[in-house]
Amino acid sequence: MPTYRTSGVAATEQARAGIDITSQTESLTISTNLAASDILEMVKVPAGATIQEIILSTTASLGATSTVEIGDGGDTDRFFAAANFGNGVAGLVRLGVAGGHGYKYTSEDTIDVRIATNATPATGAVVTMTVIYTMQ
C-alpha cells in the first residue's frame, strides 16, 4: 500500500522560518438579555495576524431564534454571517467556508460577536471563542 505525503512532511522539507501559529481562547458569561446590534468583543488580534480558524461555542441557548455574526470593527460579519444559537440548545460554529480565512490585519482589532437578533440567553450561558492565527 503506497504512502502519500504533502510537501510539509516530505523528508527533505525544512521547518518554515518566520511563521508562528498562535491561538487564543476567551470566554464571556452572559447574565442579561442581549438586544440586536449588541457587540461581544471576544479576542484581541495584533497587527500582522492572518486568521486561520475561528471557533465559537455556547454552553446554552442564546434564545429561541437568536442569530449572531462574527466579525470585527471593520466588518461585523467578516467571518460568519448568520450563526444560529437558538432553538433551546448550545451550539458551535467554525469559520465560514468563504468568509475571512486568510484575512490579514494591518492594525490591532478585536474579533467580535454581533447579536443579529434579540437574544434571551439561558441563565449563565457562556460564549467561548478560539481564534487561530499566524504571524509573519
Low-confidence stretches: 1-7
Taking all Cα atoms into account, the compactness measure Rg is 17 Å
Amino-to-carboxy terminus distance: 38 Å
The helix fraction, in percent, is under 10%
pLDDT averaged residue by residue: 78
Strand order of the largest sheet: 1-8-3-6
Strand tally: 8
How do the helices and strands follow one another from N- to C-terminus? EEEEEEEE
The helix/strand class is: mainly beta
Q: Approximately what portion of the residues adopt beta-strand conformation?
A: 35-45%
| Count of helical stretches | 0
General shape: elongated
Q: Sheet with the most strands?
A: 4 strands, antiparallel
How would you characterize the overall build of this protein?
By secondary structure, the chain is mainly β. It is built from no helices and eight strands. The protein has strands at residues 20-30, 39-45, 49-58, 67-71, 80-84, 91-94, 109-115, 125-135. The strands form two sheets. Strands 1-8-3-6 form a four-stranded antiparallel beta sheet, with no helix packed on it. Strands 2-7-4-5 form a four-stranded antiparallel beta sheet, with no helix packed on it. It starts with 19 loop residues before the first strand and ends with a strand.
